[in-house]
């Protein structure tokens, strides 16, 4: 159970790393198609629940399966980058009720760790996008543009 929680933590952190305009959040709901969408809120929706505010891209089952495999591999790679002290810090922060974004912001990563995490996220992002059709890629680009616009409006 601890490893699963760490995996979810790392997934949340990975999502936070790419939230600046290039993240893809895949959420699976039983008996519903998987949706890839930008999350306009700072805290992501729980992994197995839909985000009613998100606009999504419909994925086929093979696409969902491959994307889940890519995300799992990325989480595993990121977990290996963390030090034991960082793992304990993340666990303590979440147990204290902090959001994953707050916890992530409080963890001090070395420049090398930041670079490694960024590389893993960029690689997994490219792999995920390679699974999309041209029409789905176009939808994703539209969602990204909307996210940038919302972000700029919130900064005003």
SSE topology sketch:
Layout: H1 2-17, E1 25-29, E2 32-37, E3 57-58, H2 61-81, H3 84-95, H4 100-106, H5 111-130, H6 134-155
Antiparallel strand pairs: 1-2, 2-3
What would your notes on this structure say?
The relative contact order is 0.17. The N and C termini lie far apart (about 40 Å). It contains six helices and three strands; from the N terminus they run H-E-E-E-H-H-H-H-H. Strand 1 (about 25-30) and strand 2 (about 30-35) form a beta hairpin. The radius of gyration is 15 Å and the shape is globular. Mean pLDDT is about 75; it is low at about 15-55. It has one domain (about 1-155). Helices cover about 65% and strands about 10% of the residues. It is mostly helical and about 160 residues long.
Using brief descriptors, characterize the structure shown.
three-stranded antiparallel β-sheet; 156 residues; mainly alpha; 6 helices; 63% helix; 3 strands
Q: Give the fraction of residues assigned to helices.
A: 55-70%
Low-confidence stretches are 15-54
Q: Given the helix and strand composition, which structural class is it?
A: mainly alpha
Distance between the termini: 42 Å
How many separate structural domains? 1
Strand coverage percent: 5-15%
Task: Compute the number of helices.
Answer: 6
Average of the residue pLDDT scores: 74
Q: Give the SSE string.
A: HEEEHHHHH
Strand order of the largest sheet: 1-2-3
Oligomeric organization of the protein chains: single chain
Sum up the overall morphology in one term.
globular
Largest sheet: 3 strands, antiparallel
Taking all Cα atoms into account, the compactness measure Rg is 15 Å
Number of strand segments: 3
